[in-house]
Structures are given as structure tokens and as C-alpha cells.
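agent> Task received from the user: take the single chain below, predict its 3D structure, and emit C-alpha cells. No templates, no multimer pairing.
agent> Plan: (1) validate residues, (2) run structure prediction, (3) serialize to C-alpha cells, (4) report one or two observations.
agent> Step 1 OK, no nonstandard residues flagged.
tool_call: predict_structure(input=
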Amino acid sequence: MNINSINSKQLTDFEQDNTVKRWYIPFSHKWKSWLYVAPAILLFMSIFSMLYLLKIERLLSWYTVPYFVLFVVATIWFKAVRKHLTDNLLKRKDMFQTAFAYPLLVQGGKVFALASTGQNRHNASFVKHQAALTEITEADIAKIKVGRFYPQDTDNQLGILCIRKFSIRRWNARWTEKDVFPVMLVEARWARVIR
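)
tool_result: status=success, residues=195
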């Protein structure tokens, strides 16, 4: 897909599409949960038990059946927990917002851009106009981490984000430093380029 040709309607569609949003769930939300502990323990216990049976040369015996059943049950449980957590995250309102971002500064391999989480987040002209009024300082550059969104102006709900240049160019080789690009804002804290 050519990200230069994305319009505001497509951004709105991306915001509603759960298959697109699944790619943007942060690692900490998807995998760091106590619900994974029990199935992971059962999974490792069954694997190590079958390895022990292999070592004592009893893998092809009836001793393997309970550990194989335990492995299958733990795998199903593990996948069910992952699906449950993902579905709960997708049901949350305002967790995922799409927006246009306009580059303020390109420094090295990083692009510092302005984006909005408000009503005008799908309006590329609004973001360009606000970017002309916004200046970025060295202090801002020092505190902004790659992939994060930092709110600046509460009235227009504007914020500065930092994205690596290669992640923008990966999805569109024709992107220039004066073009807007679409981003997915997760919980108004993380920013990812839309694929």
C-alpha cells in the first residue's frame, strides 16, 4: 500500500479494523500478564518430561501419553489466554487512534513529527498548519524516545512523536521529508507507522 495515497476515510477504516489493530498491540500488553504463568509451567513441564523419557529411552512407550496430553492441553490454554487478552485490548475504547503526522525535524535516522489525538487527527492540512506554528527544541529532542508519543498542546491535543526513518520508508520508498505519513497511536503513548 502507498502511504502517500492514504486519505482520511482510510484512516478511519483502519481505526475500526481489528485485523489491522492486532499488529499494533504493544509487547508489554500482549505478553506480560500473570495469566500466562500456569500454561507456561505446564508446557515446560510436559516438554522436559518427554525429554527425560527420551533420555531414559522410554519415549515410545505408554509413559509418554499423559505428558503428550498435558502438552496439548497447555498449548490450547496458552493460545486461549493470548486470544482472551488480545480481544480485551481490542474492545477498549480509544486505545487505538490513527492520525496523520507531519515531520518537524529529521535528525540522523530519526523523524520528529507532530500529530494530533483530537478531532482533527485525520486532517492532513490541520497537522501541516500546526507544524508550521510549532518549534522543536534540543530539550525536546533529548527527552523523546523512538516510538513514543509526547503530548504538548492540550487545546488541540497535539503531540510530538519520534519514528525511525527506515520504518517510514519501508512501507513507502517515495516518502519525502515534507510529506505527511499515517501513524497508529496506541493509548496516546506509543506511535507506529501504519503498514
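agent> Step 4: summary for the user.
The longest helix spans residues 64-91.
agent> Done.
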